[in-house]
Design a protein that fits this description.
Elements lengths: L1 H23 L2 E2 L5 E5 L16 E6 L15 E5 L2 E6 L2 E6 L3 E9 L4 E2 L2 E8 L4 E5 L6 H10 L9 E5 L6
Parallel strand pairs: 1-8
Antiparallel strand pairs: 2-7, 2-11, 3-4, 4-5, 5-6, 7-9, 9-10
Length: 169
């Protein structure tokens, strides 16, 4: 009996020390090249339109099943010439670029790793926002690069800036 208690105590001690050590000094995730896009700071205003235009890129979910109570997880995000379409089950949400205020990056932490994933917050002019995470969507970095290529500095419609791990959750 005493040996069993000592074994349990030793195992709990080792696990406790591991968790405590990881809480104080977590490992760091990979380094990302994040970007910020400000639509309100552009010299020219983005033309208001209700047409999405041609399809450019699609980013799909990594998981096959998205649980009904995960309201902020999207199955698919499509990039078009004039906007973005978010898909979840049979619902679609279209967001045009003239409705956006800014797209800001953020870092997401896992249990023992700081900055393991990255994401972007899409802030709309009507004070609503939505979040896209790299842990949920494949090729989110390619999606953002394609989005940034739609707004070159010569057009003056938006300001695209490189950010080095600016925001954190």
């Amino acid at each position: 009996m005493a040996i069993d208690k000592l074994i349990y105590l030793a195992i709990l001690s080792v696990v406790g020390v591991f968790v405590f050590r990881k809480m104080i000094n977590p490992s760091r995730g990979p380094r990302y090249h994040l970007k910020t896009i400000l639509f309100a700071m552009g010299v020219k205003e983005i033309p208001k339109t209700t047409e999405l235009g041609g399809h450019i890129f699609t980013s799909k979910a990594k998981r096959k099943w998205i649980l009904p109570w995960e309201f902020d997880v999207w199955e698919q995000v499509d990039l078009f010439e004039n906007g973005i379409v978010l898909k979840r089950y049979k619902k679609e949400k279209s967001i045009f670029f003239h409705e956006l205020y800014a797209i800001e990056p953020l870092l997401l932490h896992s249990l023992f790793v700081k900055g393991k994933y990255f994401g972007y917050v899409f802030e709309c002019k009507d004070k609503s926002n939505f979040i896209l995470n790299s842990r949920d969507l494949c090729d989110l970095d390619i999606f953002i690069n394609e989005l940034c290529s739609l707004f070159p500095s010569e057009k003056g419609e938006a300001v695209v800036m490189d950010v080095d791990k600016k925001s954190e959750i």
